[in-house]
From TrEMBL:
HAMAP family: Gluconeogen_factor (MF_00973). It comes from the Bacteria. Gene3D superfamilies: CofD-like domains (3.40.50.10680). GO terms for biological process: regulation of cell shape. Pfam families: CofD. Its main location: cytoplasm. It comes from Carnobacterium iners. Keywords: Cytoplasm. GO terms for molecular function: LPPG:FO 2-phospho-L-lactate transferase activity. It is found in: Cytoplasm. This is Putative gluconeogenesis factor. One of its GO terms (cellular component) is cytoplasm. Belongs to the gluconeogenesis factor family. Required for morphogenesis under gluconeogenic growth conditions.
Length: 337
């Protein structure tokens, strides 16, 4: 059990993908948590999708951003890793140097898991980074009207209400399994954090890996969901915070979330640049009655960070709540043991 007085770092596993994940990881790193990031491998758009297609490699974009968020490299080195080739560079256009390095390392090491571990050591990563699976996955969506589509980047473009999603292997129909060390990390965690990130395309692709999802359901750790601030075009249109939780529970067949963090601060309509952030729709509305039926604990507060004409989770505020929750829940569990 975690004991604050003895000074043991809380073991916190964060599962997801997209731009929200690195924000939380940076905050956890600053608080010196024992962090493990489990990163989605179902992305098929942009540079990641192109490299996935040509090199048959796990999409590297989210992995790159997570490695950098936990890295102790000088900022100049991080900037090099993040540099994206200009659109005039023909074949290299749109690719970041980091994505190319990860693809090259996967080829050198023979598998993505070892590639990430080697890079983590080279980059001075403070924590653990694991791909959700050791092969690229295909994300499938079934819509309420019965139609289907394959491909993470295509799902939101359909603009239909999603009934459910699932994943399969890239090549054939063999059973998809979690990457090595992933199940152990979840089992030994004090806390498992889901999000923030796109519900259907960043969080659920991880949980739909059979043994990974079951490990999250079975873990004795506190399972926390960080609810999105804004609804998302083609994914969560008209969703309340309770709707987000309900989708997660239905996909895994059990009410497994212990705590949800929801932002209650108002987002001014005239602040957000909806051209720049075209996936934004409106602010997620609240249904605290529905939430109380789904989960034991709701933490609601001002978690907003206004930046670059967009709204984001304030990593410091979120992590502060996660730490308080981790110590409190483990104190209670220790007292009952």
């Amino acid at each position: 059990m975690m004991n604050e007085k003895k000074g043991r770092k809380p073991k916190i596993v964060v599962i997801g993908g997209g731009t929200g994940l690195p924000v939380i990881l940076q905050g956890l790193k600053a608080k010196q948590a024992d962090v493990t990031a489990i990163v989605t491998v179902a992305d098929d758009g942009g540079s990641s999708g192109s490299l996935r297609h040509y090199a048959n490699v796990v999409p590297p974009g989210d992995i790159r951003n997570v490695l950098l968020s936990l890295s102790n490299m000088p900022q100049q080195h991080k900037d090099i890793f993040q540099y994206r080739f200009d659109t005039k560079d023909n074949f290299l256009a749109g690719h970041s140097i980091g994505n190319l390095i990860i693809a090259a390392m996967a080829e050198m090491e023979g598998n993505i898991f070892e590639a990430i571990q080697t890079l983590a050591e080279m980059m001075g990563v403070d924590g653990h980074v694991y791909p959700a699976a050791e092969e690229p996955l295909l994300l499938h969506a079934i819509f309420e009207d019965g139609s289907k589509i394959v491909g993470e980047s295509k799902i939101a473009k359909v603009s239909k209400k999603i009934e459910r999603v699932f994943v399969t292997a890239n090549e054939d129909n063999h059973q998809v399994k979690a990457s090595r060390e992933v199940l152990k990390a979840i089992q030994e965690a004090d806390m498992v954090v889901l999000g923030p990130g796109s519900l259907f395309t960043s969080i659920l692709p991880n949980l739909m890996i059979g043994d990974l999802g079951q490990a999250v359901v079975d873990t004795k750790a506190e399972v926390v969901y960080i609810c999105n601030i804004m609804t998302q075009l083609g994914e969560t249109e008209n969703f309340t915070d309770s709707d987000h939780v309900d989708v997660l529970h239905k996909h895994l067949g059990k009410r497994f979330i212990d705590t949800v963090l929801v932002n209650t601060e108002h987002v001014p309509k005239d602040y957000v640049n909806y051209v720049k952030y075209e996936e934004y729709l409106v602010q997620v509305s609240h249904n605290f009655t529905g939430l109380s039926k789904e989960i034991p604990r709701v933490i609601s507060d001002n978690f907003l960070l206004f930046r670059d004409e967009g709204v984001f989770h304030d990593g410091e505020k979120v992590v502060e709540e996660l730490f308080k929750l981790a110590y409190e829940t483990n104190r209670i569990r220790y007292a009952k043991a």
